[in-house]
């Protein structure tokens, strides 16, 4: 079955992923612009990922369509995150001043880790050092219904925030955060594209501070799983919810 050259998938209530494939000429460029503008104008939208990994060529019309979509996104306060695997396409994006900040975070970065069947995704967002405060606020908002106790919410946000800070300082300056509600727990995945955990260190990236952050997360959370290597680090936190009253 032939795949659509462009499609939009909702990742969560405020996050969408637009996937483009094939050669982007004038006709497909107009279609991409229409879909992107419609998506970023959605009332609840906060982040739109534009996945160009499957694009074989990007003409001038395609670059113009992406530039116009980014202008619209900026006007309405939506973050447009464009990723492309092809170095030639990335060069075109950079030459046009388009966002291609994290070229190594390709399609696989959008895939969740193994989470229990029936888990509900609450948040999916990129982050860097400039937006940590805003992301922490979004974590509070999306978990408020599950963490009514202020101390529980503080602990969960603190554990996730420590892992995001590690990614910023030791994992390349940026990362991805995903949060799920899964039965009696909240799950949070924090991933980066840094050099990985150095031998003998207790946390992502070099330095004592990253080890302290991971130690704190282990004290607060029921489980902390770390997957690390030269291509990056992914930390999965499992925070038990308080018993229903």
Q: Give the rounded overall mean pLDDT.
A: 83
pLDDT < 50 runs, ≥5 residues: 100-112, 203-209
Strand order, biggest sheet?
5-6-7-9-8
The chain-level structural class is alpha+beta
Radius of gyration from CA coordinates: 19 Å
Shape: globular
Secondary structure: number of strands: 9
What portion of residues belong to β-strands? 25-35%
Count of discrete alpha- or pi-helical segments spanning 4 or more residues: 6
Distance between the termini: 50 Å
| Most strands sheet | 5 strands, antiparallel
- What percent of the residues sit in helical stretches (DSSP H or I)? 25-40%
Order of helices and strands, N to C?
Answer: EEHEHEHEHHEEHEE
Strand and helix layout:
Layout: E1 6-12, E2 15-24, H1 26-40, E3 47-58, H2 60-76, E4 79-83, H3 87-95, E5 120-128, H4 132-143, H5 150-170, E6 174-182, E7 185-192, H6 208-220, E8 223-229, E9 232-240
Parallel strand pairs: 2-3, 3-4
Antiparallel strand pairs: 1-2, 5-6, 6-7, 7-9, 8-9
Helix pairs in contact: 1-2, 4-5, 5-6
Summarize this, please?
Helix content is 36%, strand content 31%. The chain is of the alpha+beta class.
What does this structure look like?
- The chain has helices at 26-40, 60-76, 87-95, 132-143, 150-170, 208-220, and strands at 6-12, 15-24, 47-58, 79-83, 120-128, 174-182, 185-192, 223-229, 232-240.
- With 245 residues, the protein is an alpha+beta fold.
- A 5-stranded antiparallel sheet has the order 5-6-7-9-8, with helices on one face. It has a 4-stranded mixed sheet with strand order 1-2-3-4.
- β2 (15-24), α1 (26-40) and β3 (47-58) form a beta-alpha-beta unit.
- α1 packs parallel to α2 (60-76).
- It is globular.
